[in-house]
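Hey, can you fold this one?
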Amino acid sequence: MPYIGESLLTVGAYALGCVSTGYYLVRIRTGKDIRRLGSGSAGSRNVARLMGPSAFAVTMAGDAAKGVLVAWAALLLGLEAWGVLLAIFAVVAGHIWPIQLAFRGGRGLATAMGAVLVFDYWLVLAVFVMAAITLTLSKDFTLSGLVAVALTPGFAVIIGHSQTNAIGISLLAALILFAHRENIRRIVRPETGPSGEEV
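Sure. Predicted structure:
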């Protein structure tokens, strides 16, 4: 059947995304639910608040590895670019909305960056450069990451990606920005509280 490979990988990608590194790391080591602590996210920065830098590194690596594995599998199966991007979208969606955790996971950036690193490492390089520039100017870690994510579709066009790829990357960026909507509100309205939540 046509597209069966894409369909199976997409479902598998979502399922893998649901394996929340931060949630299970904290649950195993402390018995606590990371989603009830700090920012309420299962992301690496919230984990770091509770368990320190080593837990941050483990969570970041585990979340990124999910994206790497899915993108690598999609390329290995010879999927077209849209199929690869669909699988990437699915693994990030699984990370953000894990079904077994009542759809409350992380913010998705580490997983997305791991996947995009395999898909096109130039895009990741562009994101890091823009994030570094924005961080230098703003001194705001969250703002720098979100600006870089928002500009990623433009980077894709500049380096020669097709219209289909640019649309897929735009949807992925929109997904991550949506997951960070509370952070964006804090940046736009700083009187509601500090920014600095995890990206």
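Residues 37 and 162 are 42 Å apart (CA to CA). Let me know if you want another pass with a different chain boundary.
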